[in-house]
Design goal:
globular; alpha+beta; 17 strands; 356 residues; 32% helix; ten-stranded mixed beta sheet; seven-stranded antiparallel beta sheet; single chain
């Protein structure tokens, strides 16, 4: 895939929802925005990470906020372009490439909107290989790349630029601004050179999104098990199959926080799985024993269709399969675990990966 057309968007959205690990925002919203932008401006060139020149100016664009709010507070395409143009003007540099901050959820498609509007190629890569709830939780942080200067813009036309002492402060101040903007906003940050991008980003993730979406679609058409295809492609393992019996969800400090309880069915009859999330699924506990945790991926898929079920979409009675898949190996370094491991989120456990 060397360009993104309207025909690619459904598969990208479907695959991005899987990599979103329950969060990242509803990719259907991003799909609608991207379709409108691509129809208006044409197909978006997709450039492999290895082909980005050293002196390129790469600018990630993303949506920040609580997924529960994004369902009702829809962004505008103009808001996406405003965030990118604001930061480019502040930097005083000519942009050459747009990138994804995260491959999961709506933020796999928001950059398509920016690339189409600005007439720039999109890098086939992202900053984490999944979705995480806080903006410092990207691999560029591990490489010393600054999150700021960063721009932030709301749907009313308000915009600003933050310049902070470190990436944790960028998250803290941007989160406060996002709450004042209605708990969702567009941002552009982690401006980097091509050489930095090739070192710090996860290659091929937009292509992976499209591939996962196509696998799920093909499995449904062939009446085979789409969940098994996803598990195989991601090198993961099935954790649990069951019915959602309770969801406690609340929007706090700009995040969707809560837990979901699943009662086991079929092979898991009599067991219970608890999913704990902050936008994304963080920990999966089976009968009180942790089966998987961040930084690895915990994904909830509809048992029949194979489509991802987001944390804001979990409802009583849904029958789902939960799987775990390995994260980029850099997340399992001491620095990666300190940045996005279970203890960062308040769970006093070591990371539990897909190997158990």
């Amino acid at each position: 895939m060397r360009e993104i057309t309207v025909d690619h968007l459904a598969d990208i959205a479907s695959g991005a929802a899987i990599l979103g690990t329950g969060g990242g925002g509803d990719p259907y919203i991003g799909r609608l925005l991207a379709a409108s932008a691509v129809r208006a401006h044409g197909a978006v060139p997709l450039v492999p990470l290895a082909e980005v020149p050293d002196d390129a100016v790469v600018l990630p664009v993303a949506m920040m906020g609580a997924p529960t709010v994004m369902v009702e507070k829809l962004p505008s395409a103009e808001q996406v372009g405003l965030a990118a143009r604001t930061l480019a003007t502040y930097l005083g540099r000519e942009l050459t490439h747009i990138a994804c901050a995260e491959a999961g959820g709506v933020n796999s498609l928001i950059p398509v909107v920016a690339a189409a509007q600005l007439g720039l190629p999109l890098v086939d890569a992202d900053g984490m290989g999944r979705a995480f709830p806080e903006l410092q939780m990207v691999l560029p942080t591990l490489y010393g790349i600054r999150a700021t200067p960063m721009s932030i813009a709301d749907e009313k036309g308000n915009r600003g630029v933050l310049d902070t002492v470190d990436n944790h402060w960028a998250e803290r101040l941007a989160r406060s601004a996002t709450i004042d903007m209605g708990c969702s906003a567009m941002i552009s940050n982690y401006a980097m050179s091509g050489a930095q991008a090739r070192e710090a980003l996860v290659p091929g993730t937009l292509s992976l999104c499209a591939e996962l979406g196509a696998l799920v679609r093909a499995a449904r058409e062939a009446h085979t098990d789409p969940v098994a295809r996803v598990v195989e492609r991601l090198g993961g393992r099935r954790l649990f199959g069951g019915k959602v019996v309770d969801v406690a969800r609340r929007t706090v400090t700009g995040f969707a926080r809560g837990e979901a309880r699943l009662a086991g069915t079929d092979a898991d009859e009599g067991a219970e799985l608890v999913l704990r999330f902050q936008n994304e699924h963080l920990v999966a506990e089976r009968d009180g024993v942790v089966e998987a945790s961040v930084p690895d991926l915990i994904c909830t898929l509809d048992r029949e269709s194979g489509e991802a079920v987001t944390t804001e979409g979990l409802r009583y009675g849904q029958r789902v399969t939960v799987l775990a898949a390995p994260a980029d190996p850099r997340w399992h370094t001491p620095e990666g675990i300190a940045l996005a491991g279970p203890r960062y989120f308040g769970y006093d456990i070591d990371p539990i990966g897909v190997a158990g």
